[in-house]
Amino acid sequence: MKRAFAALLIALVLGSCAKSDRKTHLYLQRFFGECGAEYGGSVDVSKAEGECGIITAMVNRFNAENPDIQIDVNVVAWPGYPQLTAQVAARDPPDLVTMHEGVISDYASKGLVEPVDNYLRAAEISPADFTEAARQGVTMYGHVYALPWDTHGGLFHVNTALFAKAGLMRGGKPVLPNSADELLQQARQFEKRTGKPYLIQSNVGDPAFAARNLYTYMMAQGAVLFPDAKHLKLNTPIGNAVANYFRRINFEKLGTQNMDTPAAIAAFVNGEGGIYPTGTWMIGSFEQEAQTPGRPLYKSYAVFPYPRLWGQRVEYVSGHSWVVPARKRTPQQRAAIARFFKFVAEHNYDWTRTGHIPAFKAVLADPRFNALPHRADIAPLASMGRPLPAYVLRQNAIEGIVGEEAAAAFTGQKSVPQALAVAEQRVDQLLATVE
Amino acid sequence: MAADLRRGRLGPLGWTGLVVGALIMLAPLVWTLLLSLKNNADLVGHSEAALHGPYTLRNYGTILGNSLTLRWLLNSAIVALGQTAGVLILASLAGYGFSRLDFPFRRPLFVFILIGLAIPSQAVILVQHQLFAWLHLHNSYPGLILPGLVGPFGVFFMTTYMRGIPRELDEAAMLDGASRWTIFWKIILPLTLPAQSTLAVFTFLGAWNDYWWPLISATHANMYTLTVGLAAAQMNYAQTSGLGYLMAQAVFASIPILIVYIIFQKQIVRAMAGTAVR
Fold first, then answer.
1. ipTM of the complex
2. Where are the domains of chain A?
3. Is the pTM of this model over 0.95?
């Protein structure tokens, strides 16, 4: 027993000793999961699939192409911010971190992430190369604080077989509404002809769903959601109109009821409704269904940005980006970060195979991108996408609160003015505590 | 039924109740196991697909294919066993001191420790994290084990148990010339074995399942415990489309706990019954 224990201790000690080398080490922290079993040794980015596969193969490729640099990867549980905050507090943050654009301001406002202007210059990347949505998402306080990696937001995923049955196809494309009234009209027609709900909704345990709908259609009407850094304005005539509209969809049973995200995904895949408004990240899964003979979505899938129902064609979006937490670094490490930025910018097309919208204008115009399924249809998201203003901190927490209250309003658990007022009050209280 | 149970007999109604109860308890476990044996693609549309074949071990292969999974398993074992051993040693010593020794401020100190039971770990997490950062103990085994050793419950539990052991045993040993340490080590400690095993099981389970402290203290992948590592390995947003893999993770993480349960089931049942009676 004693010998076994001693052997274990020795093995642990030896296992903990890192081999020294002359490479410049960068410590990269990301979410998107762990898929070393499938892609651990892969450097062929073009053959990798899914977020995890593509990012894993990309980092492997970077290490292979840059023998003087070693990127050590740390995979964290999504979204990874509790760990990052803990690392910052312990003064041991990583060198590169994946971050949602809505979260950057939380760290940038306290100087916990570096502006990346110098890295971009060294990598010969100009912010003018970014799409409008991406540029807005990473620019704050007069600096660029991250290398944008994609834009993601809500899309109308459409079951074209059911749309055809409902008489809502023209020239092989689904007819999407161009006004709020038209959507109701089409939804009633859809329900009458197919016997199924027009919208598949995940109003249970998915605050992002309701928040996205409310933000998008309030922004489209020119509403200023955050007049300043400390206050949210939802309980307005525009806010009430949008919330009442989704409430009406529920009351008329034009949308599915009582579904969480997995249930809504299953419902769409099984052809139980016409449109599932959910994110860019589902394109890959749904397209796979669309290519599998015998499945309800087989050859019956199309996808578009949210249609214009009121005002402008604008949509609330976020994006993934790469930030550089503030810490002491050697010039070699700074040069290595710039080289990594250049590398990932050059591989932005590969990342768009995940379903996300590119962060670079050049990729939007790339024939390879437009040849990918549905990408030409969803590309407008890059120009119509609008993040929340950078001066708004705690955007993730706020989305949770707004989504919870909005879902309560949409489903009738609370009156619309009450839910919107409570959302304002809760968010204002939260923002009041933020320094 | 309680009377029947006391007599060791059960009528048909009792048996029916027990069987129904067991089935209700087992159903989610069997469901989890079946889901873990299915391809993710099969489950996207219908989770009922779990009720029929084909079944596959692919999800388990993916878990084991991750080069760090065994490391996380080892980390969890070291942390859970380390915490369990530490808690048993400290709680036994403290319990003996509080139950047998007279020293200044004994009662206020005991009350002070009991107050610890009322303080949630969340309330001290910031200070605790800062302290461990200052000591450079994050991403280390001591960093993962030490916070778990501060267990007011263990001290309270062992003190209460040792108070129930007659003092006459100590006195007889003293008359025979035994030292304090000998009395503790050779007389009192063996008598507390049932309490030790109960405390060990609770501590081990708590340490094995702990997520929060390892999440913020072990920030390097090679120091993750199994709970944090498996959560990090999830691939898509909220694992909305990889149900089989998610369930395989749950099954995999619970296997060691199942083994502990099988080995110590008598102690666990006794501990639960004891808790209920108290």
1. 0.74
2. 22-148+320-386, 153-317+393-432
3. no
